[in-house]
């Protein structure tokens, strides 16, 4: 993680992109790149809260709750005496158990790609985008927002099969955050692998 603090999050996206060449030279092809993501799935680990009571009766009970920011186990002792003189003591712990997926959609209207060695069939490239993602529920925690800003940057290789058909494989660093437009802004960092089939004129 570089900018976010929400741990153990996952991201799966499906979409299409539009590209238009801005500058072509012997060294690099620079092109505009915009993306539309009608399906964006984000996964958060569910929380598990457990009470282990030692007095006056030994008993254990658990319940699930909203996603936690981190899954590092936290164990806290408790000690309580009621007005009637009964003492309750034990430990309270919180950790993660299971996952919850949230569906959303996104668009990255601002993006650029730089292809190097444009006269070769196999071309390395750099890519970067900026946009937003809207989810059906707040992510990655309950006090965060459903509307988040996104940006990514990455690199990959593009193999041209013909002059107008190619296949791309790339890796991106992807960041999601609400820019403090909600009570909490933990942010999500993901490493994304992407495979694309490209066709055009």
Number of strand elements = 9
The CATH architecture of the largest domain can be named as Beta Barrel
Q: What integer is the average pLDDT?
A: 93
Helix content range: under 10%
Number of helices: 0
Task: Write the element-wise H/E pattern from the N-terminal end onward.
Answer: EEEEEEEEE
Low-confidence stretches: none
**Main sheet attributes: strand count, strand direction, barrel closure:** 9 strands, antiparallel
Can you tell me the CATH topology of the largest domain?
Porin
Instruction: Kindly provide the radius of gyration, computed on alpha-carbon positions and rounded to a whole number of angstroms.
Output: 24 Å
| Number of domain modules | 2
**Class inferred from helices and paired strands:** mainly beta
Strand content: over 45%
């Amino acid at each position: 993680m570089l900018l976010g603090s929400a741990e153990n999050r996952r991201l799966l996206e499906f979409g299409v992109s539009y590209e238009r060449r801005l500058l072509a030279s012997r060294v690099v092809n620079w092109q505009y790149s915009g993306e539309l993501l009608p399906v964006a799935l984000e996964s958060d680990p569910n929380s598990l809260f457990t009470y282990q009571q030692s007095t006056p009766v030994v008993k254990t009970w658990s319940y699930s709750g909203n996603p936690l920011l981190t899954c590092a186990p936290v164990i806290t002792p408790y000690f309580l005496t009621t007005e009637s003189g009964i003492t309750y003591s034990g430990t309270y712990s919180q950790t993660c158990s299971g996952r919850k997926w949230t569906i959303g959609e996104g668009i990255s209207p601002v993006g650029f790609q730089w292809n190097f060695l444009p006269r070769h069939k196999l071309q390395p490239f750099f890519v970067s985008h900026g946009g937003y993602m809207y989810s059906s529920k707040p992510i990655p925690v309950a006090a965060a927002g459903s509307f988040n800003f996104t940006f990514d940057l990455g690199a990959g290789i593009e193999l041209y099969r013909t002059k107008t058909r190619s296949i791309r494989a790339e890796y991106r660093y992807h960041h999601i955050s609400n820019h403090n437009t909600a009570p909490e802004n933990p942010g999500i960092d993901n490493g994304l692998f992407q495979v694309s089939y490209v066709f055009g004129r």
